[in-house]
Amino acid sequence: MSFVEKGIESFKEGDYVKAINFYSLALKNSNKPSSILYSTRAKASYYSYSSGGTDPESIGAVKWKKILSDLESALKIDHENLDALYLQALEKVYGDQTPETGLKSLYKVYEKSINYLGRYQKAYILPRDIYLSILEVKHKIVDKRLKDSVLSCHGLFQRLVQYVEHDYHKQLDEYDLKKLDKKSFDYATTNLSLKYNKDIKDLVAVFENNHNHALIKPPIDDHPDHLCDPISFTLFMDPVITPSGQSYEKSWLWNHLEKSQTDPFTRERLTKKQCYPNLCLKSCVEEYIESNRIS
Question: 3.10.310.30, 1.25.40.10, 1.10.10.10, 3.30.2130.10: which CATH number matches 3-125?
Fold first, then answer.
């Protein structure tokens, strides 16, 4: 068994450190290292540093630098290496902390992956896995924007409260300077206190409403993921379902099958005859469109 085969076996078993060592030995003993060998070692490193890919945010800058070094070597040899491009995009999201930029890169890799017909078709990451990463990053962006929005609102709320309090105390001082009799003073300050309390309650109501609105309508992701075609990311109009259980928009899938008779997600052989209308999903989309008055 070669070092590469041992590395693949170790990777499948989840022993990523051992896999890294075998891939390193393969690179060291190769006269002409391949692009996929560098990207495979980078992938093993990524999985090792992120608890099997479940916690990429825990990867520090130094470890990302090691991964990027392998990715750069891989892309120098083959600039279309899908695994390398995919991991580069993840680094932008979790290492560089620029999820919007990383998401754009993921979309590009995803498109390349769906249409990829090269020699490493079975070795590279499946389009389905890139799609899941896209959804995860989109939700990460939603959460971040919502959090920033709430924090921003909180800061604005505090400033407005301070303004109302400042105005309240200013008017109290003015009443003191007027040297009103006790009855008039008590009447004026009582009304002022009532106004102050009402202003604060109104502010709370406005910001609570704004916060709830933000929760109901996130600033990204116009439509639910399960109602959108995974190729075009638009609402289904005429969904069809494949033997793998995955649904696609018929026109987009038919266009893909003209180029390659494979399931875009799994790369398993697929023909039009194997696909059937997903009437239940179509009904759900129509109900969603009707209830949200989408034209």
Answer: 1.25.40.10
pLDDT digits 0-9 by tens, 88-109: 999 999 998 899 999 999 999 9
What number of other Cβ atoms are within 10 A of residue 26's Cβ? 20
Lowest mean pLDDT among 102-106, 157-161, 206-210, 290-294: 206-210
The whole-model pTM stands at 0.71
Q: Helix, strand, or coil here: 280?
A: helix
How confident is residue 162, by pLDDT bands cut at 50, 70 and 90?
A: confident
**What's the distance, CA 160 to chain centroid?**
34
Q: SS3 for 119-172, per residue?
A: CCCCCCCCHHHHHHHHHHHHHHHHHHHHHHHHHHHHHHHHHHHHHHHHHHHHHH
* For the chain, domain boundaries: 3-125, 139-216, 225-292
Phi, psi (rounded to 5 degrees) for 246: -90, 140
Rounded CA-CA distance 263/261 in Å is 7
